[in-house]
Structures are given as structure tokens and as C-alpha cells.
Write a structure and sequence with these properties.
binds zinc ion; MULE_transposase_dom; 18 helices; 4 domains; 13 strands; alpha+beta; SWIM-type domain-containing protein; 7-stranded mixed sheet; Nucleotidyltransferase, domain 5
Length: 498
């Protein structure tokens, strides 16, 4: 049951198309915390932007949540795409978004997903730096982009402008200054992006899609090819799931108990990161602890430089650790506990990794709530999900209206609590309850509309770089892994060697 929506113009040519399949929606439910999307790809003969919504799964691989193809790049068009996305995903907004920085897209996000944190992709900023700045300004500007401690205050900005004699005419720079909270490391630090800075996810997806793509592709062939790529990515995920469910990541025999425990909990890809933090934690030691009721503050310092200190706060209930916070905020931003937290766990001689340090999205249980039945490489959706969708769509609205008064809230609450269910409903295990809400489904494949849709009109791109697509027989051109320019590798990249 695919979800899809489309629009046509006066002469029945396709102008907007959005679609997503059931498995993509399960993926969004489990991994839709950070969504990457950009519109700079045109891989069809009509030159229409191809806009994938991409995320990262529990194995650290790319997953696709949905896709859109549109005939223009106006704010209203992006708003339409985002609304379809939310309709499809049961109105679940992502925590944060990474985009290419297109103005119209940015405005659409502000109006449709105002509560989702939004940052601009550093890869696109790097590209634009080359286009809008002199060579001698680039290094200084890059420091502003990358340095986590340099707040881009007015004074700092004036200093940069004065040093490089920037005129007020440089519109790109002025715009970037106004948008600084969406890209400068000093502002994006401590925010939830799972450690991602750029649209590398959609880059890698596009490189997969591009592998056998031709610019002369019709939309039907493009969609078919996209489905093929999707199926390969899912096959790979299924293989990784199978492998990690039948093996445990390696830990040394003298590893701590919580490290051994973590190797069972996290997927191998996530455990790799966890293990690195555990290794780094050996450089820290707890030098003091301050108790205030259920809150304990641990002061840790670096072994070889005791002046470097951090204070972590832990809360306990009946001597079991309930929460732990570190000023570096790695756990909150990347869902991986930091080396400072592990230093405290060492000190506490923890025999297992505490629940407050485990984020479900990096574990083997990430998709536990609703299994999809796998038939070869395709996925089927259960009827129960369809019934659940109906209940939830209607229920959401009714409950919201009831919540406006205390009286109605109590009335509905007592009605729900006292609702007598058929015995066949059975009981729901804890595992499923933990999984919070589930996405609503929409049976869009019941095609009642039988309108004829014509091919879209060919359009001219709006200034965004058009990707050069490699044909079947064309020789591969090497692109730099750092600046993405063709013809040289990262080892000889002038920007990298700077
Ligand atoms: Zn930390």
C-alpha cells in the first residue's frame, strides 16, 4: 500500500508527485529523528528536481523515507511536499532537518515544521564559498563554519568583514550572517543531528541512484529504478540484521562488564562508536563527588592535565541510576554516551550499561514494535495496522478537542479506561508499549481517480548546480572526497592541504 499524491496543471501535465511505501514509513517511525533532504538533483529528461527524504538506520546505513518530483521550486511547492510528508507519516514531525539551504525550502520548513530544528548542509556551504568568496577569505570563513567555540558575534563578524574588506554588496555573505544559527558550529553544537553536518546521506543515496541512471530517463523508468535501489538497500539491511542477531561484537577478555553488556545491546555499527568512547574514557578519572538528595555530581578530570574538568550530574531512584547528563551533550545530540559518562560508569563499577545511556534507535530493537513480513525483497503491511490507522486518525482529532476542557478530558479518560475489549484483543507486551506512537497509514492505492496524467513540461533549473549524470558507457571521473571537485583526490586537494 503505497502512499502517493500528485497534482497536474491546466493541460493535465504532471507538476507535483510525492510517494512513499509502507516499509519507508516503518523506517521513518524508527529512524525519522533526523531527516536530510535536498533538491539539487535532476535525474530525468524533464529536468525536474528529484527530492528524496533520507535518514540513517540502526546500522548507520542510509534509509529512504519518501520521495518527491516537482516542476518548480517555489515555497508553496515545498510546503505541499512537506504537508504530504506529514500526512503520510501520521503527522510525526522530525526532530531535525538538514537541507541544502535553498531559501524557498527554508521558508516552507518554517511554516510547515516550525518545531523541527533546521541546519544547513556544510557541503553546500563549502560549494558556495568557492563561488561567492575570494580565495584568501575562504580559510577564515571556514574557521567560522567549523570552530565550535567561536561565537559569531557582531564584533567577530565586523572583524572578518574589515580584514577582508567585504562590501555590503556581497549578498551571499550577508545572508549567511543572518542565517548563522543554522550552520556555524558554535550554534549547532549541542543540537540533535546525530553527528551529521552535511547531506552526505542523500549524496550517498544519489550516487547509488546515479549508478545506472541516464539523463534521458522517463519518470516511470526513474521510479522503477528508485524502487530497485530501495530493494537493494533493504536487502542489505536484512543481511546486517541477520548477521548481528547471530553474533556479538568483539570485546577483550578484560573488558569491563558494561562494555560486554553494551556489545549485546547496540548494533555492531553503533557499538564501534561506543567502544571508541569507552577507550577514550581511560584518559579521565573521577576526582570528587557531591551529593544532594537523589542528585549526585561527579567531577572528572583528565589524567594528564588535571585542569581540564567536567561535572556530570546523575539522578538515582533507590540507588539505581535514572539519568546522567554531561556538559558535552554527546548523548543528547548523537544518542551515543560520551567518554565522560563512561569514566563515571568505570568509577561506579557498573555491571551493565544503564538504560538511560541506551537510545533505542541504535539498538537491535529499533524496529521491534511492528515487524514487517518479508517476502523475498518486498514488504507487506498488516490489516491490523490499517485498522489502527483509522482509530488513530479519528482519535487524534477527538482527543485534541477533548483536551481543551478538564471536564471532557476526565470523561474520555474514564471511558477509555473502562472500555471493555473483546478477549481476542489479547494484551500488548512491554516491548510494544515502549514504542510510543505508531504512524498512521493511508490506503492511497485505492485508485479512484482515473484522470489521465501527461508528461511534465521540461524546466530550466533555478541556479542550483545540476548534477552531471554518468551514462552507462561513460568513463568514471574521480571526484575529490573533500571539496567534491572533479579531477583530483583528497590527497592533492588544494582546499584540504591548506
Ligand atoms: Zn561528555
Amino acid at each position: 500500500m503505497e502512499f502517493f499524491e500528485y497534482e497536474m496543471n491546466d493541460v493535465s501535465s504532471l507538476t507535483r508527485l510525492f510517494w512513499s511505501d509502507p516499509q519507508s514509513r516503518i523506517d521513518y517511525e524508527a529512524f525519522g529523528d533526523v531527516v536530510v533532504f535536498d533538491s539539487t538533483y535532476r535525474v530525468n529528461k524533464y529536468n525536474l528536481p528529484f527530492i528524496p527524504f533520507v535518514g540513517v538506520n540502526h546500522h548507520g546505513s542510509t534509509v529512504i523515507f519518501a520521495c518527491a518530483i516537482v516542476a518548480d521550486e517555489k515555497t508553496s511547492t515545498y510546503e505541499w511536499i512537506l504537508r504530504q510528508f506529514l500526512n503520510c507519516m501520521g503527522q510525526k514531525h522530525p526532530k531535525s532537518l538538514i537541507t541544502d539551504g535553498d531559501n524557498a525550502m527554508r521558508r516552507a520548513i518554517t511554516s510547515v515544521m516550525p518545531n523541527s530544528d533546521h541546519r544547513l548542509c556544510t557541503w553546500h556551504i563549502e560549494q558556495n564559498m568557492g563561488r561567492h568568496l575570494h580565495q584568501d577569505m575562504i580559510a577564515d570563513f571556514r574557521v567560522l563554519v567549523m570552530h565550535p567555540l567561536i561565537q559569531m558575534s557582531r564584533r567577530k563578524w565586523d572583524e572578518f568583514k574589515f580584514n577582508h574588506k567585504v562590501s555590503e554588496d556581497n549578498k551571499w555573505l550577508m545572508r549567511m550572517y543572518n542565517l548563522r544559527k543554522k550552520w556555524a558550529a558554535a550554534y549547532t553544537k549541542g543540537r540533535f543531528f546525530l553527528g551529521m553536518k552535511s547531506n552526505q546521506r542523500s549524496e550517498s543515496l544519489n550516487s547509488k541512484l546515479h549508478r545506472y541512471l541516464d539523463r534521458k530517463l522517463t519518470l516511470v523508468l526513474l521510479v522503477e529504478h528508485y524502487e530497485h535501489c530501495l530493494s537493494r538497500m533493504r536487502h542489505r539491511e536484512a543481511k546486517l540484521d541477520a548477521k548481528s542477531s547471530q553474533s556479538v561484537s568483539f570485546t577483550a577478555s578484560d573488558a569491563s562488564e558494561f562494555e560486554k553488556d553494551a556489545s549485546h545491546v547496540f548494533t555492531p555499527a553503533a557499538f564501534k562508536k561506543v567502544k571508541l568512547e569507552i577507550c577514550k574514557s581511560m584518559d579521565w578519572e573521577v576526582i570528587d563527588s557531591i551529593e544532594e538528595d537523589s542528585l549526585v555530581r561527579y567531577v572528572i578530570s583528565r589524567k594528564e592535565n588535571s585542569e581540564k574538568m567536567k561535572i556530570l550530574s546523575c539522578t538515582y531512584v533507590d540507588s539505581s541510576l535514572q539519568s546522567i547528563t554531561c556538559p558535552c551533550q554527546k548523548l543528547e545530540c548523537e544518542c551515543i554516551p560520551c567518554d565522560h559518562i563512561f569514566a563515571v560508569l568505570h568509577f561506579l563499577k557498573a555491571d551493565a550499561i544503564p538504560l538511560c545511556c541506551i537510545m533505542r534507535r541504535w539498538t537491535m530493537k529499533a524496529k521491534n514494535a511492528f515487524y514487517s513480513d518479508r517476502y523475498g525483497e518486498t514488504y507487506h503491511w498488516s490489516d491490523q495496522m490499517e485498522r489502527y490507522r483509522k482509530l488513530r486518525s479519528v482519535g487524534n482529532e477527538v482527543l485534541f478537542r477533548c483536551s481543551m476542557t478538564e471536564e471532557n478530558t476526565d470523561k474520555v479518560l474514564s471511558m477509555l479506561v473502562n472500555l471493555e475489549l473483546d478477549e481476542t484483543c489479547g494484551s500488548v507486551g512491554n516491548e510494544e508499549l515502549q514504542y510510543s506512537h505508531v504512524l498512521a497509514q493511508s490506503k492511497r492505492t485505492d485508485i479512484e481517480r482515473s484522470a489521465t496524467v501527461h508528461d511534465p513540461d521540461q524546466i530550466m533549473p533555478k541556479g542550483a548546480p545540476t548534477k552531471r549524470i554518468r551514462g552507462f558507457m561513460e568513463k568514471r571521473v574521480i571526484h575529490c572526497g573533500y571539496c567534491h571537485a572533479p579531477g583530483h583526490t583528497i590527497r592533492s586537494c588544494p582546499l584540504y592541504l591548506r
